[in-house]
Structure formats: C-alpha cells, structure tokens
Model the fold of this input.
Amino acid sequence: MAVTIGQLKENLGKEVKSRVLLAPYTNFKIGGPAKFFFEARSSADLIKAAQVANEFKIPFLVLGGGSNVLVSDKGFNGLVVLARNNNWQIEGTKVTAEAGVNLGFLVQKTVSFSLSGFEPLVAVPGTVGGAIYGNAGVPQVERGFIGDWVENVTVCREDKLVLLNKEECEFTYRNSIFKKNNDIILSALFNLNKGSFETSQELVKKFIAARRGQPYHKPSSGCIFMNVPIVDIEEVRHKFKGEEKIEDFIKKGQLPASWLIDKAGLKNKTIGGIQVSEDHANYLINIGGGKAEQVVQMISYIKQQVRDQFGIQLQEEVRYIGF
Done:
C-alpha cells in the first residue's frame, strides 16, 4: 500500500511536506519535486527519517548543500531529507562536525582556532557530509582533500550507528566508500595541524583568489568531470606534442578535464538553457530555464567530442538523482 503524507507526519512530525520543488535546494537551480520532503535539524532527525523510510519501504535521499548533484526534471519519487544537523566542536587539534555543517564556515572556524589543513577547502561549496561523500578538495595541493584529514566518520547503517576509520572510508580521488553503499553520513572527526592564524589567513586568501576564475557564483553543480589520470606518459606526450602545459600535467599525474574540453573547442557551447562556461570549461552553467535533460545532453556531447578528438573518455563526478 502506498504511504501517505499523513503516515509520515505521524512518524516524523508535521514538518514533513509533499511535492516540494528541489531546484531551489541545488546549486544548479534544476530539479523537479520530491514526493516527500523533510528537514533534519539534528543527527537524531536524520536517523529517524532513515528508519521511517526503511519501515515504509520508500526511496530515501539525503541532500546537503546541493552541489555536485543533478536532479531529474521529474524530481525524486521518495523521501528527500535535507541535512541541517550543524553542530561542531574544536578541542585541541581535533575537529568534530556534523554532516550539515557548511564547509566554508568550518574552514574559517578552524583557522580562527589557529589550526591548519582545511585552507584549500575554503571555496569548495557544500556541506561536510557531501564533501566526505565525494572526497572534495583541491588535487593540486598536497593533502588537499577532506579525506586526508579524517580520523573517523560516524554513519547510520541499517538502523545502526557505525564508526568507520579513515582506511574503511576508502578515500580516493573524488571517491569514497559512501558512493558504493547506503551509509548515511552523520558526522566526522578530523585531526588537523597546529598552525599560525596569520599564515592560514594568507592561505585562505590565496585559495579564494585561485577560485576567482571559476564561475562558482553562477548556477552550476561545480566541476562536471573528473580530471583524467595519466597512465602512459609517452602516449600523452605524443598526442599533445607542442602543448606547453603538458609537462606540468605529467608532473601532477592528471590531464585537467577543463583543459581537454577547452582544447575541444567547447567553451560557450549551448544547449537550451545550459552553457559550457567561458571562464572554466568544466563548469556547465544554467543561463536561465535550464533543464536536467539539457545537462544530460550536454554531458553526452562533451564526452563524445573529447573521445573523438583525443581518444579520452571523461567520467562525470556529478551525482545523478531521480533518473
């Protein structure tokens, strides 16, 4: 029997809503309605919502800051829970933060406590939970990913609280164990370095300045594609002979997706309300009235062009929801 809004309100409270448009809750400003919608103000709310969804056997989704996601125009046929659990604590070099804590806010707080390590994350959009899910960070910086600083992560797994250490989280470039299972990230413990407030402030300014060339202030999901690992150095040298940046890319071990898309001549390419950014080719911008279907078409077109021109297969880092 289909679950009703009344049944969910009986179990989760009157705050449960139905047919809530998800577009305003995503950085892309794209997405249809959630069948049911609930804001979790605490980790206990998040656990309860997961338990209720499991009990009623309805699809369940946790949404954080809304970056790195593409929500279908049809929306999500289940319960969407907005993670707004935002408690945090700093003791010595140990930083505890719940999944709903804004990442930029947490970076500034750690800096104010003269802790170093999170500075590269200052301009990364989203929340702690989403950042851990996708191991957000800056690949050009040593220990530039959030997973580099994790000591453990507390999750809800099949109605039980589970504590995962760093190794069990399986952090790799733009990836983690959480992309492969149904764990619900509740909070994380990080161990940072003692530092200098003044030095960290300068680093924060540096990383913010480095982001100025990226259109993060426009409706977008952030970078659409992962950078491409360089496996065969000589093949890359041959394929891109004469390109002045190639040796630098080889040194870093990756071909930037933005560079490949730019080389393919795709900047400013437009499909409907979606455009490849003229500032940073790995960003797709919603220039007005953009639809998820148009984003999918653009992603497919970019992958086809890069594959045909360079023999390289791009891989998305954006998360598809409701497709």
Remarks:
- The chain is about 30% helix and 25% strand.
- The chain has a mean pLDDT of 95.
- The CA atoms of residues 175 and 320 lie 15 Å apart.
- The radius of gyration is 20 Å.
